[in-house]
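Hey team,

Filing this mostly as a record. A colleague (T.K.) asked me to run one chain through the structure pipeline before their review meeting, and I want the input and output archived in the tracker in case anyone asks later how it was produced. No errors, nothing strange. Just documentation.

Input sequence:
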Amino acid sequence: MKAKRILTGMLLSAAALMVMAPAALAAREIKITGSTTVLPIAQKAAELFMKKDPEVRISVAGTGSGDGIKAIIDGTADIGDASRDMKGKEVALAKQKGENPVKTVVAKDCIVPVVHPSNPLKDLTTAQLSDIYTGKIKNWKDVGGENKTIVVISRDSSSGTFEVWSEKVMHEQRVRPDAQLQASNGAVAQAVAGNKFAIGYVGIGYLNSKLKALTVGGVTASADTARDNTYPVARDLFMFTGQKPKGEVKAFLEFVLGPEGQAMVKAEGFVPIK
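Output structure:
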């Protein structure tokens, strides 16, 4: 009889565990998508945050700033990464759909013109960069380089990096029609590294030994020149939410802005805001 009671108790305990386990073990999820510039920050932050809170599951995708903003407008993501601010029409659309977007600046960045390491040039002005990207200048010799045709590498129009470059460098003029459009910072870096006569532009966190960073008007891209805005193509990097963040999303953003998160921003090659 005693053995029967023990067995019954074990079965009840097991049944209770089966009922409680899904609720107790269910992971809280955060979905992040958007800017490929912010992608390294988001990925590393997600990795560190999940180590601190194993019950949170974070998915991160790099789909472009426009897509990240669209995702928080449509409510298909918890956080939309962007390397540009939201446009007025995007804010209006969000409010039409019942959202009230909140932006969090998580880092600063410089968009850096890059060439192949064999290129002898060291500096270009914003006017020269504009003329190269609009097609007015097509040969390196016209800016002090070799007598070779310039191969222009640009981001596609859905990119926040493209929009900031277009605004601050090209003054909203059209990019030359033969420019090679790339979907990410990494793709631009790879294309320039593989072509001795190419020029492209990437976020400061994407600089590497296979690229030569040019100064712009004599100003070097750096943490100091990004913070004081003396670098001509400096910008903020954002994480947007559809509403005022709460719960695990709020905790995640607070982590990114905290000491460990900002140290990670610096380690990833970007400029911490704190």
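Quick notes for T.K.: The mean pLDDT is 91. Residues 2-25 form the longest helix (24 residues).
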